[in-house]
Amino acid sequence: QVQLVESGGGLVQAGDSLSLSCAASGFTFFYYDMAWFRQAPGKEREFVAAVGRNPARTMYEDSVKGRFTISRDNAKKTVALQMNSLRGEDSAVYYCAAKRAILTSNLRDEYNIWGQGTPVTVSS
Asked: Which is nearest to 90 in space by CA: 65, 58, 115, 63?
């Protein structure tokens, strides 16, 4: 069964750090680009960060550059999102996503495997 399962969300204060994790199963993880998206209430799901098959190949949305770090462990089939200096506007449900690796992308419609999401609330 193809599956992505996120964990690590919660309630934190502005300026705090939080680490999200996503465990993949049911597909050949190494051949997939991985990404994190987020969706705040009343807003569209937006790109946060992506990592290619090569863990050194990463992309970030401008507002999280320098604060968030995406990483992957191909042996453990996991992808993580380390979030530092959190702000109120980072509050959202965070989704892990996967697509076959061609070109690392920030386009939501190119990702065809999605997790159920984990909520992050940042109080200011």
From this structure: 63
In whole angstroms, what is the distance from residue 17 CA to residue 2 CA? 30
Q: What are the helix and strand counts (H, E) for the chain?
A: 0, 11
Residues of the chain with pLDDT under 70: none
What Cα–Cα distance (Å) separates residue 3 from each residue in 26, 79, 80, 97, 103? Answer: 6, 13, 16, 10, 22
Query: What is the CA 96 to chain-centroid distance, rounded?
Result: 5
Per-residue confidence (pLDDT) for residue 27, from 0 to 100:
96
- Separation between Cα atoms, residue 121 and residue 13, nearest integer Å: 8
18-25 vs 58-60, strand pairing mode: unpaired
